[in-house]
Amino acid sequence: MSLHITLATAGRILRQLRHDRRTVALLLVVPALLLALLYFMYDGSGATFDRVALIMLGIFPFVIMFLVTSIAMLRERTTGTLERLLTTPLGKLDLLFGYGLAFGLAAALQGALATGAAYWLLGLQTTGSAGLVVLIAVVNAVLGVALGLFCSAFARTEFQAVQFLPVVVVPQILLCGLFVPREQMVGWLEGISNALPLTYAVEALAQVGISADPTSTMWRDLVVVAGAAVIALVLAAATLRRRTP
Length: 245
Description:
Elements: H1 3-18, H2 21-28, H3 30-41, H4 46-78, H5 81-85, H6 92-121, H7 130-152, H8 158-175, H9 187-195, H10 197-210, H11 216-239
Helix pairs in contact: 1-6, 3-4, 3-6, 4-6, 4-7, 4-8, 4-10, 6-7, 6-11, 7-10, 7-11, 10-11
Family: Belongs to the ABC-2 integral membrane protein family.
Membrane topology: Multi-pass membrane protein
Transmembrane segments: 24-42, 54-74, 95-122, 128-150, 162-180, 222-240
């Protein structure tokens, strides 16, 4: 893998992204609007809003990046762009880590905007720093990118790519501890929850909510999420096809 080629790939993807206004709106505007919706849903119940909105600052980037990248990679494959790119010195890892870098930068901007809106417009209150929330949101977004790239290898159409959302993403949201504390789940569900990376992202955010300083649990969870993202990118490279039949 070449750093120069990876950076060039990330630059190409960011330039394409800049010209896609709908995707830019989805990435940057929609999370803040959804947080505003939560604010009005929990009007008068500040503590509940603080707990749910904090977790959603990590979940929204994960879901959106999964959806955007799975479709974007599928389009590159179906249009023949990927096949042409792979005839150049560009390797599969260069391409996929370029995707991860490009959308990671987009996620940093997304996380900063959504977190800023949550704290300064909607009154979100946490014991820990808003900067840590942005950091966790970015790592979680990169996880969404990596899983989206991996799942796109098994889809032939955009409709099939979207079908992976309820299979890969929704179970993680249901079992991450947002709705029911993990320790209250039956044993086998808790075991599945412990194996899912989104669980650790949610736990890391919960640590920010209750602790003024970064905790060892938060850093451990962040390493787990980052490691899962790297593994997913490597698996995506191993399963990447040049063109969809």
